[in-house]
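This section describes the prediction task in plain terms. A model, or a person checking by hand, is given the sequence of a single protein chain and must write out its three-dimensional structure as a string of tokens. No templates, partner chains or ligands are provided. The sample shown here is typical of the held-out split.
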Amino acid sequence: MLKKILIIALLLVGFPSTAQKIVFGVKGGINWNSIGTLYHLGTSSGGGSNVTPAGDFIYEADQTMGTQFGGFVMFEWKRLFLRPELNFSTRKNEYPLALNTSYWEQQSTDISILAGVRVWKPVKIYAGPSFNSISEMTMTGPETPILYEGSATNIQAGLMVDFKWFGVDLRYEYGLQTIPEQRVDILRSAYGTNVAYLQEYNQSTIYLTAHINIFRIYPGQGGGKPKTKWRNKNCF
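The expected answer:
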């Protein structure tokens, strides 16, 4: 993850001197996450005795609303823009097991590098990679912690509407790495399942976010010095 951050920082060094406008802002919103199914083993498949249900069963993961917040800087050239972002995200899902619900949650720090174009004022479209540093992934029910990789690379694409000092965007993120299947031993007396498998999947997330453009800089204006405008109605 550190290597990726250093590479991104080097790539961005030259942008402030060429951009016509630089926008700094903060953002926050909600998300809905998708993960793999949970395969419950029945008694005849080696799931043990007194499991509920007695036969094999596949539990789909229900989407639960998560949250994210962070900041961004946007370099603009006429209709084109580049937007690096730093976000802190919580993604959530639920498995409705027979006796109790198993809650899945992931905490991560995400760096996105988005490139886009203004297709119609104030509408913009964009896409780019996102690099996730996963600090925690938990699931209630298993008797030992579930296994997970500490980083992930995803691809994002979305639609943004920018109204002068604030805006909203809707984006879709797809995980490029397949999460391998793993066995989980669950507390049967509390959840009804004894042995299950988290089946392999590619994680995906839908984000709905609002942002505030805090201030702007116009490189090269005012005798070659950057110029900041706080309330200029002609900024957009």
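For orientation: The first strand starts at residue 21 and ends at 34.
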